[in-house]
Every structure is written in C-alpha cells, then in structure tokens.
Sequence to fold (602 residues):
Amino acid sequence: MQTFFCLHESDGLRTGLLNENGRHREETLTAREIGKFVPRREQRKIPQAAIMAGVLFEHFELNNMIRDLGGNPEQIPLVVCNRFANWDHVADAMAPSPVITARGIDSYVATAWFPAAVQGYLTIRYSNTAQAITLSTKSNPIVATMVDHLRSDALGGMAVLASFEYVPKRIGQSLVTGDVPQLYGAVSLITAQDSVAAIEIALSQHRAIAAGAIHRTPELV
Amino acid sequence: MTQLYITAASAYGPLGKSLDEIWQAIMDRKTTGSMLHVASGRQYLAATTHSGHTTNTQSYAKSFAKGLRGLVLDLDFDTPVDVIFVGTAVGNLCEAEHEVYVGCELKAELLDFANLRPMLEGCPAIGPDTEIVVVPTGCCAGLQAAGLAKAVMARMGYRTGIVASLDMGLTPLAFEAFAKINATANREGHVEGAPISQPFCKDRSGFLFADGGGAIAVSIDTPLSGAVPRLTGYGCVSSAYHMTDIETDGIPIAQSILLALADADCTPDRISHVNLHASGTQQNDTAEHNALHATLDGALPPITAFKGNHGHALAGANMLEIAMTWKMMITGMVPPTPKGLAVDAFDDVIARTEPTKLAPGAILKTASGFAGIHATLVLEK
Fold:
C-alpha cells in the first residue's frame, strides 16, 4: 500500500508520501505549480478538497501507479471519507441575512458544497466508471470492510481509499469552533496484498495526518 | 449471495407523518406542493412536511434531528440494533444554516455528518455499541446505504440494522443552489391545477424540491414466520459524465440494473414491477426509460414513481420510496398514478387510475444522483 498526503500551508500545498516511519519525499507546491495540475479557471468552480485531490493524483501520477500495480484507473473502486462537506465554497457568500446569502449563491454551489464533491471530481476527471462511495463515520472497520468488498471484483484487486476535509475558520460571520480538521487530503492505493487490518491502519494514518500527529521522517527530509 | 430481510419500514414526508398515512394518500392518488415563501425573500415551488416553514429558519432548524429520530422510533425496536446506515444529501444543513443566520458560533459537531448519535439518544434501537455510518452522496445515498449494509453486515457479524435516508433540505441556501442550475420545477409552463411534480409527463420542467425520508429494519437472519421482503441484489456504477447531468442514453443506469440482477441471481424476465427514481427532469426520465428497454425483455412491467405524489426529497426520497415499495410487497397492491398526472411522455408508460394487484416476481428500484452515481436494488419476497 502506498499513501500520499497533502496539507495546506501558508505558501502552498505540502505534499508527500507516508509510510510506517512517517512522512517523506515532502515538497511544497506553489500556486503556479498547483495551477498546472488544476487549471485556475476550474479552481473557482470546485472546493479546496477537490483541488487537493487533483493535485495529489497529478503530482504523484497516481493513475500510472495504479496501472503499474495491475489496476485500471477507469475501473477502480473509490471510497472517500468526508464528514464536513465543503463549506469553503459558500463561506464568503453566507451572511447573517438569508436575503444577502441568496444573492451570493453561485451556480457551482450545487456541485461544490456536497461531501461527495471529491468523489464526483475524481470519477469524472479520470473517466472512472467503477462503484464509488463517500462515507462519513468514525468507524474504521466499516470503511475498511467496504473497501475490501469493492476491490474483490476489481482488476488487480485494487481500490483507492481517500480522505479529504476542509472546514473554513468562518462561515458567513460565524466562527467555527471545536475540533475542526484543517485542510488536508490523503490517498492510499490499496492492493490485493493489503489486509483489512492494513486498510484500517491507513485510515488511522489519514486522520493522524490531519491532526498533525505524524511528522516528517528526519533522515529523509 | 448475501440478502437482507426487511422486517419493518417507516416513512415521513409531505403527504403524511407515518408510512400508513403516506401509503393511504398515495392510494388515494393525492399530490402535494405549493409556492413557498422562504426566509431569503424568494419564492420556490416545493413540497414540505413542515407547515410552519415559510419565512423563518428557526422553526425548521431541528427538522433533520426530529425526522431521523421519528423514523427510527417508528420501526418499533425495543432492543438496540448492531448498526445504522443513514443516507443523506445535506445532513443537518437546516440547523447549521440557521446558526449562521442568527450569527451564532458554529460548533464543528453541527457540521459533522457523522455526528448523529446525539439525535438518536434515548431511542431503544440505538445502544452504546450501535455503529453509525452515514453515506452523504446525494440523491442516490439511500440506495448506496442499503448497498453498503448488504456488503458489510454479514461480514462484520452484524445481525440487525437500520437503513434510513432523510433530507430536510428546504433551506434558503439549498433552494437557491438548485434554482441556479435550473434543476427544480418552476412556474413557467406549469398548468394550473395539475400536479407540480410531473415525472414521465411531456410537460415536466424539473424536480419538485421536497423533504422527508424513510427507514427499513433489516436482518441477516431468516425470519421465523411468513414470507418477508428481501433485498437480494445491488448494483452501482459511476457515470463519469457530469456532477448533476445524466446521459439520456441511460447506459450507466442499465449497467447498475444488470449488476443488481446479477447480484440477486435474477433474470430480467422475473422483474414484475419497477419503482423508478423518476425525478421529473427531462434527462432523468428519458435515461431511465432507455435503461429499462436496454435491460428488461419485452414490454415494460408496471412502473411506480412516487415523486409524482410528493416531490423529490433528495436522498430522503430513496428510502421513502423503498418503504412504499415494501408496503406494496406486504399488501400485494400497486398504487394508482397521482390524480391529474398525464404520464404521456412515452407510449409504453401509462397511467393507472385504480390500484392493481402486484404480480409475483422481483421488483427493481432505481436511483440516480449527484456525482454521477447510479444505483439499483432488487427486492423479492
């Protein structure tokens, strides 16, 4: 299994690989580099999480990796974990007045706000017609079992497991409080050799990255 | 082949607060829907469970929590189930959006689709060990939740569960977002007195935005008595076409039907009834019609399309329609089509003015939704 992550930083998106020893091959991508992977005209139509998903797939050439591992990028099951939808796309449009809010809603809200926006973005961009599902849960075993179920019929026994979250600090004039995930994304390429337990570990790693609990591998930085 | 027995069902929608109320309204060919004045100062056509929902968001804020709790309580469990699967498109948007409008701090829990346990506290069906998983994929989420249940329950040792879907999405934000993409029914061209939601009618102009949902009690164990409806097949594909548009050739829908039939080990000639997604958009109805002809042999079996009665409650519509389909299987009756609905878009899909007997065989249930998801269930008794 290989896991790739993406974190938001003030000067761009921090990307890298993740293994049992921690983060490595880290690199910060600037806005210009991000624009090569997800064109700027498209960025304004989609949520930040979808931009990160596109960056991860393009920067690490994940579809080539899927082919090398025996899978088919156009027929690979996809499971996305997302619990907080994509409020970033409407955060600035929203106001204490519903009247003002309605004026600010653009025609992309109906496609950008939903938790399944990343799922739709990835399947459409990469012509993937396999079964895809987005899950909101604290139960790693259910997610891992579903991944295992879906990959059983897939070429190479492969599946993509992804986690993406972003909650803006403020929606309208309301401050978002509590345990809020920062902007992060993680993608694991699950192969036939990976056990259900290993898939659960990957999910835990996704969440640990979001919490900043997994740090760089010093010797590789 | 894993199958799930459906031992009970509940529903909540604009035509009634319980499954029996809604069933009776549908058997009586009732429809609902009207122009709603929303807190944003705008007006939209909609069908709602909530008579007070017009100009303020306060009275609607707790609708999702109350609705979900009601659906679970109506299933009459007296002991906890192992797992609950909930499909939804917008989750607790009504409460979160209201908090923005009153200028309150927004607690992250309110935005968290997975945070359903507080809403269900005190329900006998929910114990400390009951797992909760939400499928937030839009208008196909209820069917995906059922497919998830079918895929994982036996493998994880879960014997009893609930599959629910609910959307209480009639908020200023959601109304405006759907209006912006011209997805919803509008006044233009609407014949006064005719039902607003018009699936499979030539004059259909978009879906009638509604709220509501449904739930089913599921078990992997064979019930002790009687023939119980079973979920025997599930198929799901991605269209990879568009976030909200559907290819009118219906090929992805047909693929989901074929996958569901294969999963159920069921041949097309055994399909005796189809309950369609039938959102009432031009694209959807054409796509579904083409998909049925591509997959079923000969003449189409009788079709039901309950969005013609009470509109489209996004993911909530999925389990609301499955609850009605369960009722068809229990009573052996197929409801007539809604009064005043022309059903004239295709020559081989015709209106029924009276209830008819449900023919023996298997039932297909289709749904299509956001992100290009197409799913089908096979139900048998």
User: Anything to note?
Assistant: Chain B has a mean pLDDT of 94. DSSP finds eleven helices and 16 strands in chain B. The first helix of chain B runs from residue 19 to 27.
